[in-house]
Amino acid sequence: DAGITQSPRHKVTETGTPVTLRCHQTENHRYMYWYRQDPGHGLRLIHYSYGVKDTDKGEVSDGYSVSRSKTEDFLLTLESATSSQTSVYFCAINRQGANSPLHFGNGTRLTVT
Amino acid sequence: KNQVEQSPQSLIILEGKNCTLQCNYTVSPFSNLRWYKQDTGRGPVSLTIMTFSENTKSNGRYTATLDADTKQSSLHITASQLSDSASYICVVSPSNDYKLSFGAGTTVTVRA
């Protein structure tokens, strides 16, 4: 999606290693979200941010931390990756406020071996 | 338990045919219901958004309906095209919480 860039797009890592995923937006929006998507499940919220240094937990936040030191960047960190964190991770923003449709990046496919 | 259930899980249709996808939800109180389209390897893209007072919303060949009394929504695809092959996700927003409830999606395959 124009305006949202996720990096890397693909990553393979070993159990126990730290991993950081980056979401970058070019549109200066306040709300940013991290979701994970697994087969047979709906997208699940990991963490979200409502401004610089303002973040909160979602429904599946255990094992994840986030940081937002600049409006345009929202980082998701797996402190010690586990196989259960193998998933596709999506970043999203609200372009018109908290109740507007989400706009998603194209995802990061993470494999933990 | 997932508060948004979609059916069928997957379906195959011939190009030019119509199809209807179902979404049942238990989220309450309810603010709005959204349908997204997700192409393989891409993020979901919004198709429609309906508040509890709206019964139908169209976006080109996509028509969404909502029955807030029975807590059911449907997405109808008319005259399907190969580019309609994707996963379609129903998302419900509660009125008292920011957290959205996502269905697991219906995978549609359109064949020539």
Describe the structure.
The complex is a heterodimer of chains A (113) and B (112). Chain A has strands at residues 4-7, 10-13, 19-25, 32-37, 44-51, 54-57, 64-70, 73-78, 87-94, 102-104, 108-112. By secondary structure, chain A is mainly beta. The termini of chain A are far apart. Chain B is mainly beta and 112 residues long. Chain B is built from no helices and 11 strands. In chain B, strands 2, 4, 5, 9, 10 and 11 form a 6-stranded mixed sheet that branches. A 5-stranded antiparallel sheet of chain B has the order 1-3-8-7-6, with no helix packed on it. Chain B is globular. The model of chain B has no long low-confidence stretch (mean pLDDT 93). The interface between A and B is medium-sized, with 22 and 23 residues.
Per DSSP, what share of the residues of chain A sits in E-state strands of 2 or more residues? over 45%
Low-confidence stretches of chain B: none
Measured between the Cα atoms of the first and last residue of chain B, the distance is 37 Å
Question: What is the alpha-carbon Rg of chain B in Å?
Answer: 13 Å
Give the low-confidence spans of chain A. none
How large, in whole angstroms, is the Cα Rg of chain A? 13 Å
Helix-strand sequence of chain A = EEEEEEEEEEE
Number of helices of chain A: 0
Greatest contact between two chains = A-B, 22 and 23 residues
Q: Average pLDDT of chain B, to the nearest integer?
A: 93
